[in-house]
Amino acid sequence: MADLPLLLEPAQLAGLLPADHLLIIEQCKGETFVQNHIPGSVHLDFKRLQLPGTPAPGKLPSAEALETVFSELGLTPDTHVICSDDEGGGWAGRLIWVLDCIGHKKYSYLNGGLVAWLDEGLPTESGEVTPVASNYQIGAIHHDCSFTKEQILENIGQPDFAVWDARSAAEYTGEKAISKRGGHIPGAVNYEWTLGMDKSRGLRINELEGFRQLLAGLGIDSTKRIATHCQTHHRSGFTYLVGKILGLDIRGYAGSWSEWGNDESTPVTTGDKP
Fold first, then answer.
1. Where in the sequence numbering do the catalytic residues fall?
2. Which residue segment(s) compose the domain that 253 sits in?
3. pLDDT tens-place string over residues 130-180
4. Quick one: 25 and 71 in the same domain?
């Protein structure tokens, strides 16, 4: 089978089904999955890809915990994963970030996820699904897909470094504070994640070349090493995904604002300017 593109349209996936070499991981709501899901897909509770606890629940779980999750789902080293959700790519993008972290590079994002699939009138199945388990082993956690708090502190102000804040404008300015402190990382630019998806096209990602130009106007382009974050690295799963699709050097800051805003030692800027 030829390699599948990173960005896969619903009609393309429908033309491949049924396919034993694909693992379609759906991160829609559980009740939604039981009612309607893509044929052959399996359900994943997004919480299982988060590290429980405070102050930074968005960090990566242990390798052992991830081995358990992906073994239950039936992942093998040769499996091509199709990542989907019902919200336009936040959880699916975070899944892709997790796959990058464990070194599994065979994956695609279903553009628009279940929303676009249903809008296209493509066939669905209902009921619960029990995956055929595997014994997936993680050799090592890869760190080239992530930035830590310490690395961001080291890079603030560098001309080849940018921070894409995927939170709402109110969170960015500090008007709304979910952590101890509100505001943003000095120099970070704000483009709220849902602005990047087209509600008129089943939550597909906005037209790519226009999106590229918009981001370049914000200082997010191929000349930069880019860190992206939100509050818990959920919304920034989408922006991480967009960066990969556009070929940018983007990494997730999994600690996100839950870590940065709760650490009294980190610098914070308020207002609508970087």
1. 230
2. 149-260
3. 999 999 999 999 999 999 999 999 999 999 999 999 999 999 999 999 999
4. yes
